Every structure is written in structure tokens, then in C-alpha cells.
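FAQ: What does a ligand-bound record look like?

Like this one, built around iron/sulfur cluster:
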Amino acid sequence: MNRSSFIIDKIFNKERLSRAEALELVSTATIHDLGQAAYSARTRVYDNQAFFVYNQHLNFTNICANACRFCAFSKRPGEKGSYTLSIDQVKEAVSSRLDEPVNEIHVVGGLNPELGYDYYLNLLEAVRKLRPRVKIKAFTAVEIAYLSDKYELSHEKILKDFAGAGLDALPGGGAEVFSPALRQRLCPEKVSGRRWLEIHETAHKLSIPTNCTLLFGHIETWEDRIDHLLALRELQDKTGGFLCFIPLPYQPGHNELAAKGPDGIEFMKMIAMARIVLDNIPHIKAYWAFSGIKAAQLGLWYGADDFDGTIVEEKIGHAAGADTPRGLSIDKLKDYIRSAGFDPVQRDSFFKQIQHPF
Ligand code: SF4
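The answer part, i.e. the structure of the complex:
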């Protein structure tokens, strides 16, 4: 028996892989063997189910104090195309879809120096008032860290204030890749990987669940990717607060980095390795808005169990040239999942199955 078969047997036996084993696996196993192992790990928990959410994205500002080299979304104050939604405009955006059974609102934005602490609280309260039963997944650890530094408030205080105003969960953005050396080259102004993890740990202690991400397919190596996954796995062992991991394929358009982005094989390997290494994070997402619908469908066979949602209207990946629709109808989403060979299951932000639209 060769070494990669021995490692694959461990996955079928539900045994945890070490760093060395994960690296050996990804460099020696065929894409089919990797996919089969990841599919078995996914299927023994979820059978043929694939989850999706009826959600709405709200990107309240694209003005940002940082200048991450892979970002095509951010603008400087006054730059052409920059925008900030007033609280009234936020209300309009939410009100415009009140007739739809949206059950999650995903809110993220740039680090806009003009916005006061009250803006964030007012935004949450406004959304909560208009949508009393929706789950609000808002503000990345990067935004929490920015507010913490600007207003000299602890992460815990901010998270408690936000939860009091309506926040239910944190999205997983801003993790990028934790390697300090790479962060220096990719996003030197951004919060460190260590602090990103600390903020999520604080959220978990406050019973605020969170998601987690990895931006891949740029200048990182498989060593960087596996180390990133292991840091997430370690925190999850401690807190159990991560709901879902989302591997985000780097989008090559309109940004300084000018890397190539992952191809289809690399995308499938990433999904499969996430399912295999993250044995304690329940859900792995094939995020169609970044990967394309066809790759996301195949991702369900390579270890993913979640297809994300209707979205309307994705701005961040599309600013970087993502060649996908900006949103999908619920019927289209279900059709894509069914034609991939899976049973669509509507969920909320906490991955609870939704029987009725509200
Ligand atoms: S990735 Fe986020 S923090 Fe970085 S420049 Fe873009 S909006 Fe700002």
C-alpha cells in the first residue's frame, strides 16, 4: 500500500490528518482519490443534501482606509465610483425586498473613516426593525478591529453592543491567508491573522457563531493553505463556534496583485482538502458567486455541502471581474443543486432547516 492510500484510509476511518499527512496527500493523491475521500466525509454527515440560503447582501460602503493588493472593491474617499449608503438608503435597500422570504442579510463594507460608531449600531437596528426575524450576519473581524482601534473599545464590548443592536453572526471575511509573510505582501495594513482569530474566539465565547474563509489561488503555497486550515481547526477544537468554511478563489480582475487565480482542478482540490482537514467545522461552502455555478455544482461532489444563496447583489467578487450572475432566484438555485445530483435544503444562517419561508 502506498503512502497516499494509507492516508486516504485514515479519512475513511474518520481519523484526523497531521500537517505532514495533509501535505503529502495533496501532493501525491489523484484528484479522483481526493474527491472520493472528501465526498465520503461529506456524505456520511449530510447524505445527499446540499444547503442554500435565501439571502440578501448589503455592502454599505466601498470607501476603505486600507489598500489590500487583491481588492478591486475599495475606493478612496472622493474617488469616482465611491459610495456610502445613508441609514435611509440601507432601509430602502432592505424595504425593497420585504415581499421576499429573505432569511439572512449579509452586511460587510470597507473601513470608511467617515462613519462613526453609531452608524454601525443604527444600521443593525434599522435592519432588525424592518426584518424582525431575519438573521443578520454582519461585519468582518477586520471591521471589528478597525472600530476597536479607532474608538479604543475592546472587541468584546463592540461585539456585545452589536449583538444588542441585532447582530446574530459574523461573516468569515478578512482571514485572507494567515501567513504573516504573505500578509505583508498582500495586505500590510490589515489586521494580523492572529488578531482575526482572537476576534472570532471572542465572538464564540459570547455565543456569536461565525464563518471562516481562505483567499487562495494567488501567491500562496499548499503549505500556507494547510497552515491556515490547521489554525482554524485548532480554534474550532477550543470553541466550536465556526459554522462554515468558505474557500474564496482569488479573482484576478482590476487589482494590483495581477496573479492568475486558481483553475478548476485547484478549486476542487481546495474544497476537498478543506473537507478532509477541517474535520470539526460542519459546513464547507462552494461559493458560486466567486467560483462560477458549474464549479460550485462539481464542488458538491468534492466535499462541499453548501451552495450559498440567492445573494442579490454581490459586489465584491464582481468588482474583481467575477464572471457570474449577481444573484439567483430560489428556483434557479434549486435547479442547479438538483441537476448536480443533490437534494436542495433551505437553511438559515445557523444551518437550521427552514420548513416555511419565514
Ligand atoms: S479587502 Fe477589505 S480591508 Fe482590504 S481594501 Fe478591500 S475593502 Fe478594504
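Follow-up question: can I read anything off the structure? Yes, for example: The first strand starts at residue 49 and ends at 53.
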